[in-house]
């Protein structure tokens, strides 16, 4: 204040302006395989200096994902393909986390978008890219239809190869090693033998996802004993050969 005779007076007061501020983030894998569930974590925090009120959180899902489940009263809206949560208040420096489980159903780069809104025009956004890929997954088994067998009798080995994955495989190779005491009689599949018990089947150029191939080999018991047959499988997607065994007992009639 200024008055006549150059009289002055002054005073001041500090004013702290406070406001809430939201931060939101999605944590989880950036690469998933088709039909392999993935659980992500939504992190929400108030990093401001005042309480946030009426906070609404939304996870907008890519059509390449199907919704599996969540917690904390999250509601899935199929028409919008989105999941919603509500918080009446979020105190200063408060943090929360909620799981979100999804199932990848389409290949390619997919996006999950998060949005948090509150009173006072609060808004926070986050987007996470996820690369969804397909996977070939070969499994196989070897079984015999008769055990034990008599010397001179026959048994049939069945080798069943299955691609349980969501991606085609290629160059699927099968070898069968017969031990001394078992002799090759015939094969239902195209195969060659080295005359010493090794049977090599013609490679399968393409093995479609969720398909199976069955090979059958008929053998004759030529000597008593327990004989172990080895099946060896490798492919383009699984180049390291895997071996499985099946034993057959051959006995001599006395």
Which helices and strands appear, and what pairs or packs with what?
Elements: E1 2-3, E2 7-8, E3 22-27, E4 31-33, E5 38-46, E6 52-60, E7 65-70, E8 75-77, E9 82-90, E10 95-104, E11 108-118, E12 122-133, E13 138-144, E14 149-150, E15 154-163, E16 169-177, E17 182-187, E18 191-193, E19 198-201, E20 204-207, E21 212-221, E22 225-234, E23 242-251
Parallel strand pairs: 4-12, 14-23
Antiparallel strand pairs: 1-2, 3-5, 5-10, 6-9, 6-11, 7-10, 8-9, 11-12, 13-15, 15-21, 16-19, 16-20, 16-22, 17-21, 18-19, 22-23
Q: Report Rg.
A: 34 Å
Q: Quote the beta fraction.
A: over 45%
User: What is the N-to-C order of secondary-structure elements (H for helix, E for strand)?
Assistant: EEEEEEEEEEEEEEEEEEEEEEE
The CATH topology label of the largest domain is Immunoglobulin-like
Q: What distance lies between the first and last C-alpha atoms, to the nearest angstrom?
A: 128 Å
- Please identify, by name, the CATH architecture of the largest domain: Sandwich
Number of strands: 23
Number of domains: 2
The CATH superfamily of the largest domain bears the name Immunoglobulins
Main β-sheet, in a few words? 7 strands, mixed
Continuous helix count: 0
- Uncertain runs: none
3D structure, described in words:
The chain has 254 residues and is mainly β. The chain has 2 domains: 22-133, Immunoglobulins (Immunoglobulin-like); 138-251, Immunoglobulin-like (Sandwich). It has strands at residues 2-3, 7-8, 22-27, 31-33, 38-46, 52-60, 65-70, 75-77, 82-90, 95-104, 108-118, 122-133, 138-144, 149-150, 154-163, 169-177, 182-187, 191-193, 198-201, 204-207, 212-221, 225-234, 242-251. The strands form 5 sheets. Strands 14, 16, 18, 19, 20, 22 and 23 form a 7-stranded mixed sheet that branches. A hairpin with a 7-residue loop joins β22 (225-234) and β23. The N and C termini lie far apart (128 Å).
């Amino acid at each position: 204040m200024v008055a006549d005779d150059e009289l002055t007076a002054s005073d001041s007061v500090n004013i702290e302006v406070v406001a809430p501020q939201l931060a939101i983030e999605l944590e989880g894998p950036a690469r998933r395989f088709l039909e392999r569930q993935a659980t992500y974590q939504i992190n929400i925090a108030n990093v401001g200096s005042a309480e946030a009120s009426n906070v609404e959180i939304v996870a907008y899902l890519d059509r390449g994902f199907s919704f599996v489940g969540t917690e904390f009263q999250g509601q899935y809206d199929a028409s919008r393909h989105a999941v919603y949560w509500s918080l009446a208040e979020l105190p200063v420096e408060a943090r929360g986390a909620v799981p979100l489980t999804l199932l990848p159903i389409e290949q390619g780069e997919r996006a999950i978008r998060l949005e948090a809104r509150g009173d006072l025009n609060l808004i926070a956004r986050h987007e996470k890219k996820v690369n969804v890929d397909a996977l070939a997954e070969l499994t196989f088994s070897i079984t015999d239809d008769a055990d034990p067998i008599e010397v001179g009798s026959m048994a049939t080995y069945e080798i069943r190869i299955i691609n349980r994955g969501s991606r085609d495989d290629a160059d699927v190779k099968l070898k069968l090693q017969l031990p001394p005491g078992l002799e090759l009689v015939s094969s239902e599949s195209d195969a060659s033998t080295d005359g010493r018990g090794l049977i090599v089947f013609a490679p399968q150029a393409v093995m479609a996802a969720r398909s199976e191939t069955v090979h059958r080999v008929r053998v004759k018991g030529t000597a008593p004993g327990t004989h172990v047959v080895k099946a060896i499988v490798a492919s383009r997607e699984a180049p390291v050969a895997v071996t499985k065994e099946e034993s057959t007992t051959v006995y001599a009639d006395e």
